Amino acid sequence: MRKAWREPCSEQRDFLWPTSSLVAPWFPEDPSLERHFKGHRDAVTCVDFSLNTKQLASGSMDSCLMIWHMKPQSRAYRFAGHKDAVTCVNFSPSGHLLASGSRDKTVRIWIPNVKGESTVFRAHTATVRSVHFCSDGQSFVTASDDKTVKVWSTHRQKFLFSLSQHINWVRCARFSPDGRLIVSASDDKTVKLWDKTSRECVHSYCEHGGFVTYVDFHPSGTCIAAAGMDNTVKVWDVRTHRLLQHYQLHSAAVNALSFHPSGNYLLTASSDSTLKILDLMEGRLLYTLHGHQGPATTVAFSRTGEYFASGGSDEQPEVDFPVPPGRGRSQESVQSQPQEPISMPQTLTSTLEHIVGQLDVLTQTVSILEQRLTLTEDKLKQCLENQQLIMQRTTP
After folding, report:
1. Alpha-carbon gap, residue 284 to 396, rounded angstroms
2. Is 231 left (phi over 0), alpha (psi -120 to 50) or beta?
3. Which of 43, 261, 279, 379 is the most exposed place for a label (fewest CB within 10 A)?
4. 3-state class percentages of the chain: helix first, strand second, coil last, to nearest 5
5. Which residues fall within 8 angstroms of residue 98, CB to CB, at 6 or more apart?
6. pTM, whole model, 2 decimals?
7. Other C-beta atoms within 10 Å of 178: how many?
8. Coil, helix or strand for 222?
């Protein structure tokens, strides 16, 4: 069922959630929130912009998607269909389709209009963590807790093939800009680069000290950036497989990242509640943004690079900002003093870090138990096969 609301709209009060709009352009001299959308009933897990930046999609732990229009007072749509938390969203290159993945083990392709029609794709056997369209829109790739990366045909609505060398949950998978490569990030602490045509793993990057939460290609297609539970962001050259840059700027897990379309900036979201903007040309931190009251779980630049949006566990779905200035501006302007709000009390920060650490340990424990269960299942299967062989031999 789809629910839609308009503000104001008295006849749909049951489906109405207030939207606060703070119109304050964000310039480098005064970083500030431009607009805040509120409508989800639980933590926001994912955001993505349409091609023309007219629509913003978000997914949430409340099992719903919402599509927001950037013009104030415009209609927003709430799509219900998934049976569990929505973990990922991605607009097709044309913007005519929207893909979503969920804990309900399914992928849905939606037509992002008033009807909100969707098609269900089933092949994964566990939570779908990531979905991403190829640049031609003909296929999309998904990543799942079933330890596989799967590639699908968009228009034939068909599962094509799996990539299965990860030995733990796969958190993220993305196509390269030219569609020839796929990169995936996993809880097995590796990032893997795949050739789509041969379906072979080209290279494994093993430098992360913890689970790898997110990975994406640089707009040029020559580099990849990966975020990890070890609080780091790493950038590799996919041609030489050399580590180019290493950032350890966050005080907790880095949950998501996004390249600016120019390729000059990298935006990160962390469980330390902050967003950070990195200057990749200079290899340094530009800004730290304090807007979320809880872990920042997702972030995405718009396709034009004019805005970016973030979501978090503070149940504040979307926050859009104009982006930093182009490289044509003077170095002094780029370095002009960012506004740093007052940081959280040290005791609260320590408590949050301890909680994050305990959750990390719990996640690792669950992962180990899952691996042991898999081994047990394999041994049981082998025993049953051996028993069948023995029975066949003894049967006259």
Report:
1. 76
2. left
3. 379
4. 15, 40, 45
5. 48, 57, 65, 67, 89, 90, 91, 92, 109, 110, 111, 112
6. 0.74
7. 12
8. coil
